[in-house]
Amino acid sequence: MFSEVLSFAIAAAWVSLATVVAERLGTRAGGIVATLPSTLVVALYFVTVEQGTAFAARVAYAVPAEMGVNAVFLALFVSFSNRGLARALAAAFAGWAALSAALFFADPRGMLLPIIVFVALVAASTAWLRARHPYRQEAGQDITYTPREIAMRGLFAGAVISLAIIGANLAGPVLGAIFAVFPVIFTSTMVILYLRQGPSFTAATGTTMILGSVNVVAFAVVAAFTLPALGAGWGTLAAIVASYIWSAAGYALFITASHRAVRARR
């Protein structure tokens, strides 16, 4: 019960922060914040405590492939966003369910194949969006948030991730990975931004989140080695530090590349 409560609290705080950052500072910062490892950190920690390091490592092995599936989820949402929220969600979850089922039956035993799948799906999703649905990154909006709005955002995310953690504890390693990175942060962030800012702003944020999903993969790759070597506490901490350093470096490179692209167009 403690793991579900803690996961609820972290997911609630995280999606509220990601949404506020996206609207206040723009689509780039919001997309990066939304893809920092958060709920997966809690999931893997408690899986390690309750089921051992070997089981947790197998969960981590499958995470990159499932994050690739989540990239397709975002690409489908963005592609259908101009047709209404309901259709965008239906298309995104249909694609997610089909690819997650394929991952479950593939049952990857190592890290190489899931990383290859992740790179392929992210590359395909990014290329598709750039070719068919190019969205300009937008500046943030000056909006005053009420406590009720922020609380409702958090409750939406927290409720779904709690169910995901319960499922991960009851399932095997691959299903555990699927549940551990269930796109609750992606879904809640997309829905909230869609309702508040409209499809264009939401689609631009979703495009950034696809590239930012590598942050979660970095955590999983490091955790697959640090959890068996260092245990639940220190292994999780080492993976967090490594993934957040990676995230900061990636964000700096992303901003630099964006500025260069802007100057080149002038």
What is the tally of helical segments?
11
Q: Between the first and last Cα atoms, what is the distance in angstroms?
A: 56 Å
Rg computed from alpha carbons, rounded to a whole number of angstroms:
18 Å
How many beta-strand segments?
0
Main structural class: mainly alpha
Number of spatially distinct domains: 1
> Helical percent range?
over 70%
Q: Please mark out the parts with pLDDT under 50 across 5 or more consecutive residues, or reply none.
A: none
Shape: globular
Q: How big a fraction of the residues is strand?
A: under 5%
Summed over residues and divided by their number, the pLDDT gives a mean of 79
Q: Largest sheet, described in full? A: none
SSE sequence, one letter per element: HHHHHHHHHHH
Q: Could you outline the blueprint of secondary structure elements for this entry?
A:
Elements: H1 2-25, H2 27-34, H3 39-51, H4 53-80, H5 85-106, H6 112-132, H7 147-170, H8 173-180, H9 184-197, H10 199-212, H11 214-265
Give a description of the structure.
The protein has one domain (2-137, 148-265). It has helices spanning 2-25, 27-34, 39-51, 53-80, 85-106, 112-132, 147-170, 173-180, 184-197, 199-212, 214-265. It has 11 helices and no strands. 86% of the residues lie in helices and 0% in strands. The model has no long low-confidence stretch (mean pLDDT 79). It is an all-alpha fold and 266 residues long. The longest helix is centred in the C-terminal third of the chain and has 52 residues, at 214-265.
